[in-house]
Amino acid sequence: MKKGKVCVLGSFNLDIVAGMSRFPQPGESLIAHNSMMGAGGKGANQAVAALRAGARVHYIGKVGRDDFGTFARRHLDSAGFDAVTLFSTPDFPTGNALIYVAGIDAENMIAVDPGANLTFTAEEIEQCRPAIAAADILLTQLENNLSAIEKVIDIAEEAGTFIILNPAPFQPVSDALLAKVDLLTPNATECTLLTGIEVIDIATAQQAANVLHDKGIYALIITLGTQGALLSVAGDFQLIAAFPAVPKDTTGAGDAFNGALAAQLASGINLLEAANFASAYASVCVERAGAAASMPTYEEALKRQWATL
User: Fold this and answer.
1) How does it assemble (predicted)?
2) pLDDT at residue 1 above 80?
């Protein structure tokens, strides 16, 4: 596979994860089966996924000048990225997340303190213009301040860089911004919030997709967990099957999907094939604990894909 260039602007969080038999009720204390601390944040997770799925990656993030920020630098320096641009601020802490993982389906509940992730300045984003213009793909999310996301998308649009927006975690965005995006990748919850249509299955996902097309979005993939994903290009629907998996931790599933998808598209793979590979990649990811630490290699995802043929 040709190694394409993916530029990821997104969050870095320090994740503190507790494995539980079930989620606690309000006011209740439960003993965790296990706990771990590791690198996370949607941006950093997706950058690692794109890297391990075969892309050359330039990651852009922002942290605080604290112990968590030191951890972030060490992690990012050792990840193997082509380049890292890491801004910092003395005024806000490094982003962090408290995560419960519970039950046989390994579902998760997450509380995020975004901290420095919400403090990108226009000047900092402008410094990244050459990296964005040189990339085949810009991959970004909504875990940073919206002004930064808008500016980075404008730069990518001007440069002709293909733009993937994963609208997570949800925050309101304008239809004008959505119309600049080449590929939108919401999950069912985010799609519901974007459209007002409750997305619970393929049929409702198709209805929501049509609403998003009316907002000017040409191509989108709505991820639906174990139901797979719906790919819609100008209203032409294709179902992306979910690959069999025995889940251990679903925290990084969406990030795995988006990173692998970006890597495939950057290498010149068509959208349908890229989405199928990303589905296989995510199925391997959920069988491991942690977010960034659980991202599989290109070969592991390919093996999963071949095993179901």
Assistant:
1) Homodimer.
2) no
